[in-house]
TrEMBL record:
It holds the Pfam family AlaDh_PNT_C. Belongs to the zinc-containing alcohol dehydrogenase family. Its EC number is 1.2.1.46. Its cofactor is Zn(2+). Gene3D superfamilies: Medium-chain alcohol dehydrogenases, catalytic domain, NAD(P)-binding Rossmann-like Domain. Residues 178-241 form the Alanine dehydrogenase/pyridine nucleotide transhydrogenase NAD(H)-binding domain. This is Formaldehyde dehydrogenase, glutathione-independent. Residues 36-153 form the Alcohol dehydrogenase-like N-terminal domain. The keyword NAD applies. One of its GO terms (molecular function) is zinc ion binding. InterPro entries: ADH-like_N (IPR013154), ADH_Zn_CS (IPR002328), AlaDH/PNT_NAD(H)-bd (IPR007698), GroES-like_sf (IPR011032), HCHO_DH_non_GSH (IPR014184), NAD(P)-bd_dom_sf (IPR036291). Keywords: Metal-binding, NAD, Oxidoreductase, Zinc. It comes from the Bacteria.
Length: 396
């Protein structure tokens, strides 16, 4: 291992690929740890939540190495690692989790109590998530390797589907979690807000769970066209602001059983201006009485670029009384990836879902990552997959 390079956040709308230190078996505070593994990264993806940081909409510090969607090959392990070994091809949940605390033991690995001094939950390369170095790089260190890493059972078979399997680190479980939280089932009518990669993954999850019809709303014509190509019902939000009417045009009534917010705090209204609570309020409008709302879209506790003082602290103007009066169930928070990644791996390996096509996975080199960020920020209907060592290209 030598010559590590990674995608570094330097300020709003400014990322560069730079030389970075080789990973060590060390915690962010410098302590030696023996429960960790070092990976040669096979695939690492650009996520919409990375984009929030790069836009300057968080308190992320300059110098942060980005990247929490990681698939790799183990090249070194600490002496306490027993269940995975050098040479294994593994999927890394974006959650950094110890596997031993109360929440991890309960399956809520998104809010591990020990890996972040500031708040529950840890992640790689993300603001306020424990200081774990990100994986949009050539190499990365993963702690608590026996607990966190999921080994692919057949390396050659996995490499043949690596564009799909790289989605198991975050986006596919996150979208699926949104659909599960919205209680999608056989015959459900579903509305997904946002036709970006997470919204498309949520639609894929709804399809797996048996939804009768899944509608996806967005303003972006390229993303809506891709949603239609993948067999979902596009809802063009640029037409007017009466979402219920557009839903009724598809299902005959202005409501759905399940709604999924895949947009988050940078939501925009029909007028074009930013309205951070607009999607959540729409969800309560169009979800039927006793229906459910899943919220995989990111909401933050501090947004320096928010439109008003309340939103800068993560306080939103919700019509919560409407949700209460309709007996809605709402669920949000970081996805506990380990709850879903093995079952979704099986769905991919046995051709139950073509998630790479659904999110329009597009492979780029590590040095091209800044251009990938620019294109994604401009609304490209693509999920950018970084191939640091050219291994995906070889597999293809």
């Amino acid at each position: 291992m030598s010559g590590n390079r990674g995608v570094v956040y330097l300020g709003p709308k400014h990322v560069e690929v730079q030389d970075i230190p080789d990973p060590k078996l060390e915690a962010p505070d410098g302590r030696r740890i023996e429960h960790a593994a070092i990976l040669k990264i096979v695939a690492t993806n650009i996520c919409g939540s990375d984009q929030h940081m790069v836009r300057g909409r968080t308190t992320a510090p300059a110098g942060l190495v980005l990247g929490h969607e990681i698939t790799g090959e183990i090249i070194e392990t600490g002496r306490d690692v027993e269940m995975v070994a050098k040479g294994d091809l593994v999927s890394v949940p974006f959650n950094v989790a110890c596997g031993r605390c109360r929440t991890c033991r309960g399956g809520d690995t998104g809010v591990c109590l020990t890996v972040n001094d500031g708040r529950p939950g840890g992640a790689y390369g993300y603001v306020d998530m424990g200081g774990w170095i990100g994986g949009q790089a050539r190499y990365v260190m993963v702690p608590y390797a026996d607990f966190n890493l999921m080994k692919f059972p057949d390396k050659a078979r996995a490499m043949a589907k690596i564009r799909d399997l790289t989605m198991l680190t975050d986006i596919f479980p996150t979208g699926f979690h949104g659909a599960v939280s919205a209680k999608v089932g056989v015959g459900s009518t579903v509305y997904v807000a946002g036709a970006g990669p997470v919204g498309m993954a949520a639609a894929a999850g709804a399809r797996l769970l048996g939804a009768a019809v899944t509608m996806i709303g967005d303003f972006n014509p390229e993303r809506l066209a891709h949603a239609k190509k993948m067999g979902f019902e596009p809802i063009d939000l640029s037409k007017h602001d009466r979402l219920g009417e557009m839903i009724a045009d598809v299902v005959g009534v202005p409501e759905v059983d399940s709604a999924i917010d895949a947009v988050g705090f940078e939501a925009r209204g029909h007028s074009g201006g930013e309205q951070p609570a607009v999607v959540l309020n729409q969800m309560m409008d169009i979800t039927r009485a006793a229906g459910s709302i899943g919220i995989p879209g990111l909401y933050v506790t501090a947004d320096p670029g928010a439109v008003d003082a309340a939103a800068k602290e993560g306080s939103l103007s919700l019509r919560f009384g409407k949700g209460w009066s309709k007996a809605h169930s709402l669920h949000t928070g970081q996805t506990p990836v380990l709850r879903y990644n093995r079952m979704l791996m099986q769905a991919i390996l046995y051709d139950r879902v073509n998630i790479a096509d659904i999110v329009n996975a597009t492979v780029i080199g590590l040095e091209d990552a800044p251009q990938g960020y620019e294109a994604f920020d401009a609304g490209a209907a693509r999920k950018y997959v970084i191939d640091p060592h050219g291994m995906i290209a070889k597999a293809a």
